[in-house]
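REQUEST FORM: STRUCTURE PREDICTION
Request ID: SP-0412
Submitted by: Lab K.M.
Chain count: 1
Length (residues): 348
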Amino acid sequence: MDFYNILIKWYLQNKRDLPWRKTTNPYQIWLSEIMLQQTRVAQGMPYFFVFTKEFPTVKDLADASEEKVLKLWQGLGYYSRARNLHKTAQFIAYELNGVFPDSYKELLKLKGVGEYTAAAIASFSYNEVVPVVDGNVFRVLSRYFDIETDIALPATKKEFSALAQELMPSDNPAIFNQAIMEFGALQCVPKNPDCDICVFNDSCAALQKKKVNMLPVKLKKTKVTNRFFNYLILEDTLGNTLIQKRTAKGIWHNLYEFPLLETQEIASFDFVANEVQKTILASYTILSIEECSETTVIHKLSHQHLHIQFWKIKVEGVIVDGVDLEKLKTFPFPIVIYNFIENMEVKF
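STATUS: Completed
RESULT:
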């Protein structure tokens, strides 16, 4: 079919030199696919190199502590991916004797592996004829064929999967999947693609109908919640501080943070000083409180915007289980807290 031939020719001329394309090892392909979920290639690649060096095999990853895995994942975001990655590595290493499932159906049973990731591993590692459907594929197919179905609807994925299956050759599904995703990433980009140089500019329905920037259709809007975090940076007479592990379900599960005061809005100095004295740090004698920065840090997650303030609080005496600055940097933190620690002007 013309679409396939044109696409593959474009791919062979334009594809990026990515390390996970040089192997059929399911461990490395799985690792790359989990890392690239909701993450750009440029951001994810350094992490891929770190993980494959630190954990050359799935057994090495399984044997590591979760804290070490989270520390190496620090800054990549969506930390549930790292926790699922670790648990799945343990399942494969200990329950499956280190052997990955070799079919789409069996791969789907792994924790943290959805339809897209299972299809990617099955086609890239085992050449199984199963299409990958991600945001790039939605965009390419919806524009080329002028499909106005709302991609936010669950049923839409089946429609696009069926279309991709029709276009996919049975003898080389891996190259088709790689090619269509790469085309969406490099050429048929979300905003203002350069259609003048596109290899499909004489056959793309959306271009002919001047609908390129209207497709794909996605009507569902993500509801964003605003939350207000006040982190309390304690400093005792030894220069040590206090941190805690987030054990509750939700964002940053099992990562570390400073003592937290969550408020309904951006907090004033007087409010924080009063709350800290009354409740959170009632057992400490507070010597001084000051805001570490005049600007509130806004940290944007997929469904939440966190408005973060840091407060330096000197306390009398010695903090039980206090941590010095050198040891502090060895714990896995959310990147916004890690950046604060790296840029701290105060020395504990």
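NOTES: Strands lie at 225-235, 244-245, 256-257, 260-263, 286-291, 297-300, 304-315.
Reviewed by: T.R.
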